[in-house]
TrEMBL record:
Family: Belongs to the ABC transporter superfamily. Macrolide exporter (TC 3.A.1.122) family.
SMART domains: AAA (SM00382)
Organism listed in the record: Arachidicoccus soli
Keyword Translocase included in the entry's annotation: yes
Gene Ontology terms: cellular component: membrane protein complex
Keywords: ATP-binding, Nucleotide-binding, Translocase, Transport
Superkingdom as given in the UniProt entry: Bacteria
A molecular function (GO) term: ATP hydrolysis activity
Signal peptide range in chain numbering: none
Protein name per UniProt: ABC transporter ATP-binding protein
Residues annotated as domain ABC transporter: 5-235
Length: 238
């Protein structure tokens, strides 16, 4: 089976004051279709840097990244943006919804860029909201929803284009523990429905919802283990 994500000796340096500061120091990794991976590690270990590379928001300064069969390591920004739109759904810690728009309009945004007509946009947005348990909130704006609901809207937006991978950088970082569990269960359902999910968390009890746990330390992989005590009982949604 070929991997969706193949990293070979990925390096990243940030250049500051003419000096390169190494942050990722040779990350080699394969992630296969339908995996549910938690990326952990102390603050400053390079998790967000790696996620931004995985999500084609940034490029490595060394090594090779093959995403779904395409070498994206040295792609120009415009091509990278196209790949990102097709292959990647990204959820951030800060929810990043547009406050003036309803839940359905926020979820439908990527479809505007994809040139989908309005009727189909709304139909698909409502279907995506149903997948995250918010079918009855399609007309609500951010100020009419809880933090957990808003993050679920952001997840619905991230999956609207059926991306090859769903990436989330500390998606539960702004949520209380009960709401965090609800959000992790949504990710579990999305994975059970056939998607590949990679998320960052620094909380051990959140990582227990993933099937595989990769730990970074100081820019290298410290450990990479299958979680035999995976929590959550994902319900198939289709
Ligand atoms: P984590 O998400 O694990 O906390 P990051 O990937 O955000 O870690 O950061 C790793 C290291 O890289 C930190 O030392 C951070 O200060 C540095 N860093 C992150 N982004 C930049 C940037 N844009 N420019 C310079 N240094 C950065
Ligand atoms: Mg981070």
């Amino acid at each position: 089976m070929s991997s969706i994500i193949h990293l070979n000796k990925i390096e990243k340096q940030y250049f500051m004051g003419g000096q390169g500061i190494p942050v990722l120091k040779g990350i080699s990794l394969d992630i296969f279709k339908n995996e549910y991976v938690a990326l952990m590690g102390p603050s400053g270990s390079g998790k967000s840097t790696l996620m931004n590379i995985l999500g084609c928001l940034d490029t490595p300064t060394g090594g090779t990244y093959i995403l779904n069969g395409k070498d994206v390591s040295k792609m120009p920004d415009d091509d990278l943006a196209d790949v990102r739109n097709v292959e990647i759904g990204f959820v951030f810690q800060q929810f990043n919804l547009l406050p003036r728009l309803t839940a359905a309009e926020n979820v439908a945004l990527p479809l505007i860029y994809a040139g989908v007509n309005k009727e189909e946009r709304i139909e698909r947005a409502i279907a995506a909201l149903e997948k995250v348990g918010l079918g009855d909130r399609s007309h609500h704006k951010s100020n009419e929803m809880s933090g957990g609901q808003i993050q679920r809207v952001a997840i619905a937006r991230a999956i609207i284009n059926n991306p090859a991978i769903l990436l989330a950088d500390e998606p539960t970082g702004n949520l209380d523990s009960k709401t965090s569990v609800e959000v992790m269960e949504i990710f579990g359902q999305i994975q059970a429905a056939g998607n590949t999910v990679v998320l960052v968390t620094h909380e051990e009890d959140i990582a227990e919802y993933a099937k595989r746990v990769i730990r970074l330390r100081d820019g290298i992989i410290e450990s990479d283990n299958i979680n035999t005590a995976q929590k959550g009982s994902p319900i198939l949604t289709h």
